User: Fold these one by one.
Assistant:
Number 1:
Amino acid sequence: MVTSIIRRFIQALFVIVAMTVIVFLAVNVIGNPVDILINPDANQAERARVIAEYGLDQPLWRQYIDFLAGLLRGDFGNSFVYGRSALQVILERFPATLELALSALVIALVVGLPLGLYAGLRPRSVASRIIMSGSILGFSLPTFWVGLMFILLFSVQLGWLPSNGRGETVEILGMRWSFLTEDGLRHLFLPALNLALFKTSLVLRLTRAGVQEVLPQDYIKFARAKGLSERRIISVHVLKNLMIPVVTIVGLEFGSLIAFSVVTESIFAWPGMGKLIIDSINLLDRPVIVAYLMMMVLIFVGLNFIVDLCYTLLDPRVRLDAKR
Amino acid sequence: MAALLEVKNLVTEFPRHGAAPVKAVNDVSFSLEKGRVLGLVGESGSGKSVTGFSIMGLVDAPGRVAAGDIFFNGENLADLNAEEMRRLRGRHIAMVFQDPMMTLNPVLRIETQMTETLLAHEKMDRAEARARARDALGMVGIPSPEERLSAYPHEFSGGMRQRVAIAIALLHSPELIIADEPTTALDVTIQAQIISEFQRLAEERDTAVIWITHDLAIVSRLADDIAVMYAGRLVETGPVAQVLTDPRHHYTRGLMDSVPSQNTRGALLKQIPGMTPSPANLPSGCSFHTRCGGADGLCTKLPPEIWEGERSYRCVHPLGARALDAITGEAVS
């Protein structure tokens, strides 16, 4: 078990190193920040000074080494736009995105699991058909359009919920959170629902498929033959087998919730990382882009790692493999 | 004394789209006394397993018991509601399945799977349930049962898993165990061990057993009575000693001839010509007549059940029943 964890850890390190190369090269390809940074009226000497200041006169490999050295110190350089540490700029925005993504995940699980369970257990009922058709909508309607419709309906027409910003926040551990105040929750609800829509359908369909795969198994029939109650069969025998694929997918999808909340954040003017990265790309704010991408790499690698660990907890057969 | 189990004219159907339902079990009747072992024999698809599941009330939907009665301890199972049926399962009627690799839940510890069976029927604390589970494992010959309780199914071999399944079935010392080909998936040496242990445990508890199998050798060794099933119907029933030494039905004869034996070493094994008919498209009358050597025009009509002492058969041209020509003569003429 321990050796397998260490092995995974080393693998993760390799992934991160490979990603530094890709991120670094990719950012160098998308445009020259000098054009944006320097006043077009500046003379040649001034240009040279600024270029040297940002280390852009160095050969590429040299820049990469400097970049790596900075990375090890947790220093991504200063944002060209904000003039502050790029990492700090991102971390300020991180709680907003995290809380949005977590809320969306909770909604997806709370709505998706029971509905999927129901649709799997009673596949022929009318309610199940409605649920399944609904999930197709959840899959296929574009997020931005649904977001706009939410705003139109709940904010403009009905005036129930606010359409932008985070509302009132509370500071905990030096980070600002919305979900602890009533006003914040009201602001959080629509964007979270919008972001959750796709994942809910995913969890729902995954759960239903899992139920239908597990139910015909002999061990379920055997559990019935043992005289177990239907409730115990579903909540223990079915659910525990079902959780293996659900945890795997949900864990991985959580990363994409954080990384791709861009659309939802833009529509609801949610001041999170997604909005920041779009702005930064427009302004070619290289340090912020790099810091953001590296952070995403870390999040994905970290989530993968956690999912692997959960997997061994859920599935004893995987544990045996790890022991070998 | 009334029989422990009495199955009367049982019909179990599986509906088809736009056609008459398939009768997987068709007009099957038999009874079983306390402590007796019945071997239910037939080819794959003959309806043996469905008969077992019908008794358990576990026929997969949309299949259903369409007609007939099943009496257990004098109680008609059709009158029981779902909860009463659940209380019966596992406690009074237990079942062992064919494939031990599939019958235990892969993600639950053996302990969980055993204690939940106990807790589903009796009030007891976890420690007591655990102790009983451990004793049951020891009883079926699993070494160091205490440690094995916390193992997962994949850490057991096929034979060991089947022992666990048998231990689970025996937990409540049920009056009846339905064993659905429990040794078919095991290799021969393990088969022999499991059969003899099963036999011993059932005898100790005076448990009645329905042993579903296609292996006549097992039946001859284990069972008191035999019921031969073909295409959903019982074609011959009776005490094993009588039926297997002097079969009446041509199908029983065919099954016996296709068992390899010492005496016919080197000779070609006889086989029953043709294939089991599809249950969706059965020949009229005696379903076996299309494969039967002794069939003639009479066989296209469904033969009545003919009783001869303790045994019965459905055949208008029974084998070896010279003394009974008077009875069958009527049917022939």
Note: Chain A has a mean pLDDT of 83.
Number 2:
Amino acid sequence: MIGSILREAWKSMGANKLRTFLTMLGMVIGVGAVILMLAIGQGAQYVVKQAIATMGSNLFIVLASFSTTSGVRTGTGQAPTLTVNDARALLELNTVAEVAPMQPGTKQIVYGAANWNTQVYGVTPGYFTVRDWTVIEGDPITETDVRNATRVAIVGQTVLDRLFGDEPAVGKTIRLENIPFTVAGVLDRKGQSFDGRDQDDTVLIPLTTAQRKVFGSQFPNSVRMIMVQAVSENAMAQAEEDITRLLRERRRTPEGQEPDFTVRNLSAVADVQAQTTKVMSILLGAVACVSLIVGGIGIMNIMLVSVTERTREIGIRMAIGARRRDILAQFLLEAIIVSVLGCVIGVALGVGCALLAMRVTGIYAEVTVWSVLLSFAVAAFIGVFFGFYPARKAAWLKPIEALRYQ
Amino acid sequence: MTEPPNGVVVGIEHLYKQYETAAGPVPVLKDVNLEIHRGEFVAIMGPSGSGKSTFMNILGCLDTPTRGRYVLDGHDTSALDSDDLARLRNRFIGFVFQGFNLLPRASLLENVALPLIYAGTPRRERSERARELLERVGLGRHVEHRPSQISGGQQQRVAIARALANRPSLLLADEPTGNLDTATSHEIMGLFTQLNAEAGITVVLVTHEHDVARFAKREVSFVDGVVTHDGHVREPESAT
């Protein structure tokens, strides 16, 4: 029975190919748009999530802000008011798991004939924990390195590519400000940060070496920033309070006065970013869904025309024994076939466009199985929803009236 | 199903039909009583507006009476819903229309097999039965043709084959020769006569042509919704 109904439906669709194609086109474009938009939204979310994951979790960054002693206000991170001792004190807090005092700067690095301008960070071993960053080759910076201000460097993947190419880097000597450093290790690849910087374009050296030999500060113990990792996500709020209170106490900053440091919650910044991408992808999907609904209305429109055109046929079928449900099934099935077939083509089109977008624009798009399944479910639903009214109209025709219809 | 008494295929008692219009109810059939036995060949005659088409529709379970009883082959039709009526049309009635009413996109074989689909007959059996019926009406060599590829007379033969698909108790023909020329009309009427005489199929024919009614054995005439004559086929006065 269902087999003969399917054949009938197929035949009547084939009888008016152009019309069937145009009806289907609405679904094709709708589903294609949904697939493509979801792929782009999903891709953007994936990129952000990935970047957040590489940042390290539950992070605060404490920056030295303007100096109040001199009359001139300097930019954030410029005043030499944060010290290694601050970092040590912060580590004593119950809500703090690890600290990483840092001294950053941009330097030219030379290896043989190759040279490269990169971010150089003076760090302590805590940095690797805080950033959740492993050294895949060689050794990380140790407490001994920091204590002795040794001239060792850990290079990121981008620096490795630029300076060494395929050569092994560990044990080689690079020059930083004309000071020779031995490459002690190579960092794992991290990719882009959530604000779009290349995190692998970096060289890590012991903090003390940076302070005394590379950046040459007049305040030998000062650091530009301290990264602080809270013990857990739930402890973030308490940790922020603790950090601020402790640093104020250490400076004896009076109540009501602005402190000479800033505490930023990096995870919160990342969350906002993630939220933004999510909202964007929902918006894209919603816009695409509108076109799917328009496609559905197209199907309904054509089905109504088809029912009117085939009134006589319906009458004949009823006269020779078709029940209402037989007629209903026939027209409903036609609508479902059109929408599901349109969906299949639409999925192919959407995936094709997503791949093309990736190649041409470099956007990362990700077609997920659930978005394809969702499209099929929505297409079938649209077929039933928009096909039901015309099919019901056909099934509820009176046999004699349908037969008399010219 | 048990054989109804006296082989009564159509039993109609005190049948009324009226249409509701804005100007009030318009009676079309008034107290019609009729009994048709198995193997009869009845012509229903009457001028247009006499109610014979309405009667035909009720006979074919396409329409329901306002009052009265209609028993089709032992089935009282008065209490049936649309699905039951569809089943009755499918199993007990074979329709032959003036305009042939074949499905234009389907082959002759598919057209004849259509009632079998709604009867739930398996595919293989459908196609065998349809082929056999087409052979019986002399179109065994055209099974894959479309209705538009054959003549009007041939199309009406296909329609007759389709009407016979489920071995109905009653073959209902509504002006079956109305769209055909005289020679073809006689051929088609010959086929009805043959089916009636040889296979014992009960035929009810609606026509306004005496020339066509002549083929039947019994004539029922309608005037203004009332049966005015029921008996042997009368030769029209003008024909002699």
Note: The interface with chain B takes residues 1, 3-4, 11-12, 15, 312-313, 315-326, 399-400, 403 of chain A (CB under 8 Å).
